[in-house]
Amino acid sequence: MDTALQITDHASRIHTPAPSTYARITGLAYLLAIVPPVLNLVLIQPHLVQAGDVAGTAARIASHPTLFRLGLALDLVMFAAVLLLSAAHYAVLAPVDRNLSLVALVFRASEGVLGCVTVLAGAFVAVLAEGRTALDATQAAAQIDLLLRVRAVGMDYLLVLMCLGAIPFCWLFYTSRYVPQRLSGFGIVCYTLILLGSLTNILMPQYASYTVLAFAPGTLFELTIGVWLLLRGVSVPSRASS
């Protein structure tokens, strides 16, 4: 009996970080998950990858291997941040609804794992590009193009997983009022658009050029909520007021 009381007393004295601490970690993870891919998409990819130019893309990657690897590193940072974001989200929102938070955690963590697989496909591209001189240039370019296409398709699949996790997290933010409901509601709308756009790309890839606008609001949302959580944390309603 005394031993049980001692264990209970010891457990009660274990320091548990405040929700706002986890919320600030969530905010930082949001920024780490969105800023690196934007930099990659805007500053690196346009200089290396040109749609329809198979041989030229392979040649540019071979000529600028460090730049291509920098893009891979930025993607790896993004997906590592997604894994951190998944855990931090769960830590913040589990008190609201543990079961729904766990479901969302699984989907967002799956996004991070699948994302790391796409980075590995990019690493194969780098290896093939460096070995072009030892291979037939046309064959190497075709293999590089195939891997880049696989990466692009994989992104649509992982975005579906992202949305299946992000929408429940935003819903929990909305119902808990941890952040302004307009912000969390905007997130639900953004991730729903991304989900529809990604499913369209998977089922009808010929319309991919029309769905690109569905992804832009999500970038704005993640930047906004990332800064909000990092600077302000969450507003936890007191038990008395409830």
Gyration radius, to the nearest Å? Answer: 21 Å
Sequence stretches where pLDDT stays below 50 over 5 or more residues = 7-14
Query: What's the helix count?
Result: 9
Number-wise, the strands total 0
Quote the average pLDDT: 88
Structural class: mainly alpha
Protein name: DUF4386 domain-containing protein
Transmembrane segments: 21-44, 72-93, 105-129, 157-174, 186-204, 210-231
Organism: Polyangium jinanense
Keywords: Membrane, Transmembrane, Transmembrane helix
Task: Give an overview in words.
By secondary structure, the chain is mostly helical. It has one domain. Helix content is 81%, strand content 0%. It has 9 helices and no strands. It has helices at residues 2-12, 19-48, 54-63, 65-93, 98-130, 137-176, 181-203, 208-211, 216-232. Helix 5 (98-130) packs antiparallel against helix 6 (137-176) and helix 7 (181-203) packs antiparallel against helix 9 (216-232). It is elongated. Residues 7-14 have low confidence and may be disordered.
